[in-house]
Design a protein that fits this description.
TIM Barrel, 11 helices, 11 strands, 43% helix, alpha/beta, three-stranded parallel beta sheet, six-stranded parallel beta sheet, binds zinc ion
Length: 301
């Protein structure tokens, strides 16, 4: 290999990488009013496809689409976009209790954790509109968690224990993260299945380290031009503690905003590849976008 090609290969993003937390479509209207009739899937398809094609050209093999049920989860749309773009799009099971429960259907409030878990397990076994959810996605606000949030975490933990699915949880702060680990322990769900989503909300790297040492994945989301330096510090703090092997990164980018004209501002998926990865020491891109997603989510080439 010529020296110049060798240098280019070092700088190139790893092939077959995975973005662990992005969105194609989100509707924040709330569980009472959410409906497929609120958007035109053809319009969403047309607007999202170029963004997926752009990130495919940079080596993205798959994307975990983290929009939960009652927030615009649309497996059929994802399937069409995956076929057209060549980027695998994974969907999820679970329910989102963050933002004070406005995205929860009535049954989430009345049913037991076991019964809710049965719903999630059934989705995993039978699929959702022809697509098998590949992970659990839930959401909770800051801790200490109210009983309804604790119940949903327990339902997700039971689901993970029974199915082996990884459990990604949008989490308000470090208190809520550690509280969820306790709930998983009680439910006898391995902590290695837990992905602490939005760990960047917690400013103390020792709390990140504590969760990671307990076995959890620590995911720093929302990487973008304004936050890149902070995110880089978060990842480096993990590496300094020898915890790069429990670290994930994502942009939490996209998406078609249901209810806004033309879907509002669709933030693309390429920044992480074009700007953030080049800031990392050699070898880290491979770990953060290939090796760790494979370990955390079973997302293998
Ligand atoms: Zn998200």
């Amino acid at each position: 290999m010529r020296r110049r090609d060798f240098l280019a290969s070092l700088l190139a993003p790893p092939p077959a990488s995975t973005l662990v937390h992005e969105h194609v479509l989100v509707d924040f209207i709330g569980a009472n009013q959410v409906s497929r009739s609120r958007y035109d899937p053809e319009e969403v398809f047309r607007l999202a496809l170029p963004h997926l094609q752009a990130v495919a050209r940079l080596g993205c093999r798959r994307m975990l689409e983290c929009t939960p049920n009652f927030l615009g989860r649309d497996p059929g749309l994802l399937r069409r976009l995956a076929e057209a773009s060549g980027v695998e799009l994974w969907t999820n099971t679970g329910l989102y209790a963050a933002r004070e429960f406005i995205f929860l259907p009535v049954y989430a409030k009345t049913e037991s954790a076991t019964k809710l878990a049965r719903r999630f397990i059934r989705e995993h076994q039978r699929g959702v509109e022809g697509t098998k959810p590949r992970f659990i996605k839930i959401g909770v606000d800051r801790g200490p968690l109210p009983p309804l949030s604790r119940k949903l975490v327990e339902a997700a933990a039971i689901t993970s224990r029974e199915t082996g699915l990884p459990l990604a949880s949008h989490t308000g702060d470090g208190v809520a993260a550690l509280e969820q680990l306790e709930i998983l322990s009680k439910a006898k769900c391995p902590l290695t299945r837990f992905v602490w989503v939005h760990a960047q909300n917690e400013r103390d790297p020792e709390v990140h380290a504590k969760a990671a040492r307990a076995g959890a994945w620590v995911e720093f989301d929302g990487i973008g031009p304004r936050s890149a330096e902070y995110h880089l510090r978060c990842v480096k703090a993990m590496a300094e503690r020898d915890l790069l092997g429990r670290t994930l990164i994502s942009q939490d980018s996209g998406w078609y905003h249901v209810g806004e004209p033309n879907g509002g501002n669709f933030r693309g998926y390429t920044y992480l590849y074009t700007d953030f990865l080049p800031m990392l020491p050699e070898g880290w891109a491979q770990r953060l976008l290939v090796d760790n997603p494979a370990l955390a989510f079973g997302a293998t080439a």
